[in-house]
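User: Please predict structures.

Assistant: First:
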Amino acid sequence: MNTMVSDLDELILVDEADRSLGFLSKALCHEGRGVLHRAFSLLIFNDRGELLIQQRAASKRLWPMYWSNSCCSHPRGDESLEAATQRRLHEELGIRCPLQFLFKFQYQAQFDATGAENELCSVYVGRCRQPIRANSDEIVDWRWIAPEALQREMAAEGGRTFTPWFMLEWARIWRDHRQAVLVI
C-alpha cells in the first residue's frame, strides 16, 4: 500500500508566528525556494536510549537516500499536529507512541535549482517499545543509534549524508535538550 503524501495534498501555509495563512499543494510548497509551511519532525528512542534514524527512499523528490530523523512530514489541511504526528508514525513506521513537544524552528534549505524546504517545524520526541514496520515506499533503510555515536557521525567528514533539517534540529537538541532527551 502506498501511503506517501500526494503532491496534490494541501499543506498549511504559515507566517513566522505559525499563524495559518491558507493552503497550497505539497508540490507548489516545495518549488523554487519554497513557501513557508507547517511541518513536524519526530525523534523516537528505544529503551536503551538509542535514536531511530531512517534513510529516505530513492523516490523522494527532496533529499532522496539521505539519512534523517525517525519520521517527518506535514499536517494536511486543517489536521492538528497531534493527529498528523500519530498518522505519520503509523504510516511510515507502523508504530504509535506518546510524543513530547520540544521546540519549533524555522529553516529554508535548497536541494536543487527547482526544489527546497521552507518550513516552520515542530520537533517532538518519544519512546517506543513496539517493533518497527518501516514502509518501503518511504524508507529504504533504518537503524538505532546511540546519541553520542550520531554526534560523531554528523561531525565526521566524508561520512553519511544527513538531511539539513535533521542536522539543524539535532544540533539544537544536543546543545539545549540533551538531558531531557536522555531521560525520555
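Second:
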Amino acid sequence: MTYSSDPEVSRFQELVYLLKIEDVMRREVSTVTPGTSLREFKEVLRLKRISGTPVLDSGHLVGIISLEDLIKAMEAGEMDTHVGERMSTCVERLYADEPVVQAVNKMARFGYGRFPVVDRSEKLVGILTRGDILRGLLRQIDVNYREEEIHRYRASHIFEDIVSNRTSLMLRYQIKAKDFGGGGSASSKIKRAIERLGGSPQIARRVGVAAYEAEMNLVIHTTSGGEILVEIQPDQVYIMALDHGPGIADVEKAVRPGFSTAPEWIREMGFGAGMGLLNIQHSANEMKLESTVGEGTRLEIWFRIPPPEPPVQKEDML
C-alpha cells in the first residue's frame, strides 16, 4: 500500500468536532417580543451596545430584528410600529447539542457572524458568534493541555505485552440514520481508543476528524444507518464505513468541495455542507470510496502511524 505524506490536523480543527455549541455559546441573551415598540428596541441596542436581538414569544424563537431593520423604519417614519411588524421571521438557527463544526459550516454558508441557539423544542437557550467560538476553543485548549499530557502513554507498552505475529485491536459501531443528537459519539470513542493506546495527539486528531465525517455521512445520507469498523495496529489505523443506502451516482463528483446529496431540510439544520469527504482526504493518508446506486457505499480510510523516534543519547546532546 502506498501512503501519501502525513497531513496535519491542528488542535483547533479537532475541537470544532469535539465541542458542542452549548459548550461555547453565550447564555445571557438580550431579547425582545413582537409587541416591543421600535423606540424601546432602539433603547435596548443603545444600552446593551449590540446590533440586533432575537424575538421571543413565550420563550420560543419567532424572529430576529437588527439595527438595519431599525434604520429602515426610521427612514420610513415608522418608529411608532412594533418589532413584530419589522422583524425577519425566516431565521437561521443553531441547535445547542450540535458540534461546533456545524456552526462553522453554517457561518461559512450564509456569511452570518452570529446565530441564535435553540434546543430541540425551538426554545432559545443562547447566542453564538465567531468570537464566542474562538474564545471557547482557546479556553478548552488551556483546560485540556495537562490532561492530554497525563493520560498519554505509548502504544508499544500495550502491544509489546501481547505475543503475536500480527497484533491488532478491532472496534465496531452501529450508526443510526438521522440520529443527529447521537451523531459523533462513535468517532469520539474511536479517538479515545487511539489516545488510550498511546497514539500521538496528531494521529488521534486526524482519525477523530475523519471518523466523524464518515459517521455523519451514515447519519445524513442513509435510511437504515450503517456500520463503522476500525482496526488499530502498531503501524496503522484502518477505518471502514459501510451502508446499504441509496448509493452515490457519481463518486468522482462526490469528493468535490461543496457537492452534497443531502436534502434541503438537512442542509437547513447545518449538516451536509458538502465538505465531509474532502475533510477525510485532508486528514487521512489514503481514502477509497466505492458506491453502487441502490445497493450502498463502502468507504475505506487508512492512517499511517510513524515508528517511534529513537531516544536521544547523552552524547547527541553534547
